[in-house]
Prior knowledge:
Helix content is about 75%, strand content about 5%. The N and C termini lie far apart (about 60 Å). It is mainly alpha-helical. It has one domain: Up-down Bundle (Four Helix Bundle (Hemerythrin (Met), subunit A)). It has helices at about 25-60, 60-65, 75-100, 100-130, 150-180, 190-215; strands at about 5-10, 20. The longest helix has about 35 residues, at about 25-60. It has a two-stranded antiparallel sheet with strand order 1-2. The protein is elongated and about 65 Å long.
Amino acid sequence: xxxxxxxxxxxxxxxxxxxxxxxxxxxxxxxxxxxxxxxxxxxxxxxxxxxxxxxxxxxxxxxxxxxxxxxxxxxxxxxxxxxxxxxxxxxxxxxxxxxxxxxxxxxxxxxxxxxxxxxxxxxxxxxxxxxxxxxxxxxxxxxxxxxxxxxxxxxxxxxxxxxxxxxxxxxxxxxxxxxxxxxxxxxxxxxxxxxxxxxxxxxxxxxxxxxxxxxxxx
Length: 218
């Protein structure tokens, strides 16, 4: 394969051409492989946390059973519905990018990002309610100190997941929405949209496991 740069002139008027240093097929395969390897590390990260949860629950079964009843089940269910819908719109954004419909990419990724904001608002509402009642793992004078093991792993897992939600929103905005406003995507170039959606799907999938694990464990 030649090492010569490939110039893509399929850009809006007035915009400089995009220079690629490998052919589109190779670039797509490399990007896709890189993303899957990255997602594998993310899965391993949460797998460690899931295993920690299982071990802690084994040794503190009664505590985990009782503590789960103090979580807001409806808030968790609402967040599950929000993320499932956002995953659908992210998938639609990929299809629209492949069709060269940049306006639809902006719309659907925008909906996914908005759903991310809704998720964080609901989660903030949950955290605020727990803070009001002193439901933190290491507050010695709290009535809920007996649930310190469950609350500790709850905040750790949901907090880390919320961080991933924020990262996913940033990725979809920078690599999906902003380029789409400049009509960057077409049937020949839609890789950033697909990779952004893949990351968002993983974020949603992790929550699908977190919700029953934490909220329905009792």
